[in-house]
Amino acid sequence: xxxxxxxxxxxxxxxxxxxxxxxxxxxxxxxxxxxxxxxxxxxxxxxxxxxxxxxxxxxxxxxxxxxxxxxxxxxxxxxxxxxxxxxxxxxxxxxxxxxxxxxxxxxxxxxxxxxxxxxxxxxxxxxxxxxxxxxxxxxxxxxxxxxxxxxxxxxxxxxxxxxxxxxxxxxxxxxxxxxxxxxxxxxxxxxxxxxxxxxxxxxxxxxxxxxxxxxxxxxxxxxxxxxxxxxxxxxxxxxxxxxxxxxxxxxxxxxxxxxxxxxxxxxxxxxxxxxxxxxxxxxxxxxxxxxxxxxxxxxxxxxxxxxxxxxxxxxxxxxxxxxxxxxx
Length: 328
Known about the structure:
Oligomer: single chain
Structural class: mainly alpha
Order of helices and strands: HHHHEEEHHH
Number of helices: 7
Number of domains: 2
Helix content: over 70%
Strand order of the largest sheet: 1-3-2
Largest sheet: 3 strands, antiparallel
């Protein structure tokens, strides 16, 4: 079974994908806005932090130079400041250590030729000291300024991806939990459709629409099972009655065949005496004047005998229904 077929056959997966797609779209938009906002915030914070640190460093150096100049003036001495003196002062007091930790790839130096030109792909921060005779210069590449932004981006990506996966997982769990009664109902319906009417549909314990649907289906399945049991009992009873009717019909057929054979036999036995009576009757009619008393008595005796024989056969024939009724 392919993945697409599994997705099409699972409403839970389909609903989870729709919700996950919607949540992902919103999540991506929010992360993009946060990344854009954080870029501006990090840029402004880096610029402001660097300028503030450079101003504080320039202020310290300027104060030291002014104090040294004032001390030399009061002592009536000449105080000379050059570029090497300022660099040595910065080096001895480690003024650029904090900035160097914040901007690891930056160049720090003292300029006495005004503001230097900015190179492509870099930032230049300049702060004047000692009445603009010197300038503290910090030249750093863009990576130092945007380094925090890249860290924030990585953090946002990892956090966003983790949060998105957690949201999708919890969405799937919640959807699967609420749709689980439907899965049970579908499996039970397939078993019932295959003829397994004894399958028990459990009570979902839920009061929402899905729970009511499952409970109603369980009641319907129980009613159907009772109805099918009654139908099976009626089928057994009808089968028994059908067997009894078949046996009765078979006995009736046997009696009917017996009657037909009896009637055929009786008819064959009645033919001879009736023919005898007919012949004697014809003889009497044709030769009455020529017959004497003895011949007439013989004919009479034969006719009476044949008549008695026919009467006896008729009595047996009339007695057959009574015997059949008694037998039944």
